[in-house]
Amino acid sequence: MTVVLAGGLMFFLTMFVTLSLVHFGPVRPAAATPLAADDNPSWKFRNPEFDQWVSQIKDERAALALREEQLKDWEMRLTAENREISTVTQTVTKLQNDFDQRVLQFKDQEAANAKKQIKVIAGMSPEGAAAMLNEIPDDETTKLLFLMKADVSGPILDAMSKLGPSQAKRAATITERLKDVLPATATNNLSSNATP
User: Fold this and answer.
1) Of the candidates 13, 108, 114, 194, which lies 20 to 30 Å from 91 by C-alpha distance?
2) If you average pLDDT over every residue of the chain, what do you get?
């Protein structure tokens, strides 16, 4: 331990002597040396590739902004067209419903008129009814006779067939067409409701 103390003391003594012999003068700034072309600071560094990348990013950003604006325009157009289509669809649906309602009213009115005609024809004599039905087209005659009960339409067809050969042929044609007018279930419902 004495050796360590003696070594430390010698070190400090040598340092003191050495420092006291050296005289330090005032510190002078170093002479300014001009910077060489490659001595520019890093914040002034320009890389052409970096400038090109920045330019490309700016171009892409402008293109994206333009594309976004176009998409917004298309979205507005699609929204407007969708509203227009919705309005047209609602109008068509309303018109279709109105048309269907009018067709039903017309069919109801037509059925009521047919019932009235059947009552009038059923109240006539078979000869008078046959003469009147000769003036009506075959389709209408077939429909009226179809809606009548068989005990009313039979004598009328018999009277039609006695009016001459052409009327007998017409009565046969109408009789043949009677089975094709409506299905059997509708026949039973109409004939039971139509004839008094």
Assistant:
1) 108
2) 81
* Distance separating alpha carbons of residues 91 and 9, to the nearest angstrom: 112
Please write the tens of the pLDDT for every residue from 27-68: 677 666 655 555 566 666 677 788 888 899 999 999 999 999
Task: Enter the pTM of the model.
Answer: 0.41
DSSP string, the chain: -HHHHHHHHHHHHHHHHHHHH-------PPPP-PPPGGG--GGG---HHHHHHHHHHHHHHHHHHHHHHHHHHHHHHHHHHHHHHHHHHHHHHHHHHHHHHHHHHHHHHHHHHHHHHHHHHHHS-HHHHHHHHTTS-HHHHHHHHHHS-HHHHHHHHHHHHTT-HHHHHHHHHHHHHHTTSS-HHHHHHHHHHH--
Tallying the residues shown for the chain, one arrives at: 196
